[in-house]
Design brief:
The chain contains twelve helices and 14 strands. It has about 375 residues and is an alpha/beta fold. Helix 5 packs antiparallel against helix 12. It is globular and about 65 Å long.
Amino acid sequence: MRAYGKRGEGIILGGLHPNSPIAVRGVATAPARSGSLRAAMTCPRLRIALLDDTLRLIGSLPSFAMLQDHSTLRVHEHLTDPDELAAHVADADVLVLTRERTPITAALLERLPALQMISQVSDTPHIDLEACTRHGVLVSANRFPGAPHFRALHATAELTWALILMANRRLPEEIRSMREGHWHRSTGRSVRGRTLGLFGYGRVATAVAGYGQAFGMRVVVWGSERSRARAQADGLEVCASQAEFFEFSDVLSLHLRLNPGTRHIVTAADLARMKPDSVLVNTSRAGLIAPGALLTALNAGQIGMAAVDVYEDEPVTDPSHPVLGHDRLICTPHIGYVERDSLNDQYAEIYAQIFAWMRGEPIYVVNPAVLDRNRGPRQR
């Protein structure tokens, strides 16, 4: 088990080599800087473990100063084995999660007897909420409803648009060609005058729709009844059916949350309806597409190009993985929201959730049944 730092030690790397997978910080003696932090100072000093800091970035963000009066441990590797992860964070009071990267299972929770709270932003399909409630662990997760200017939403929309342009202009192929000493190898196409199909119409899709219109595209939408109503209210076209939507779209981008109702909502039959020179982009969740359907459609020539930022099992690090070797599939490593300003915003919100819980006023609680047992940190 890695020990947390002691008061006044500042930043250390677990007493190990600087490339250690664990970074530990003790409690600094500088005064609190925010009202929420000052209000929390009457509560116990916490041991906070921050998972999946694989870029070793969290400690350099301005928001990290919010934790200066607590012991922190940053895990620099992606650990999913319950025994391996618990060996590092068994004495943590709070886990800070990086979105949905680490599964929080009943097996893991059984190995974390000190754990009282989990704080993150966005959805929680990776967390066993029933097990959290059984163990008295409160889960706070702001999904940012009604926050159109939240920068992570625009970061994802920007990446979506970058992938759309990359796929249509065949940029990866042309870049590779020049590096190999060649000149033109393919002929891309402009998006102007073509049809952009958005499957789902939430906040990210709304931003992408604006980009499409700015580039002279016709924008059409399919999704839930609520999504279609919002799109119509914004003056966009709505297709008559899912089949028509896949048939008409020149560029089709997925913008759905993954839940039991949307898992595998894109079928092999849907992809077979697409135009042979069409482009499919997925920066939402891999599970929206039926297993194997995308590669099958590409191999059969049913789709011209695809670009994805999400995968069934992450991280994808095996160079022989089928998606990485396909000439007509652009892959990025789930970086839709991985942008410095956006990440700083997200971690600031995560820390604010911790402080609210410390004051006995937890917010954005996704397992409210636990509140009878846990409204704030218990004394050690």
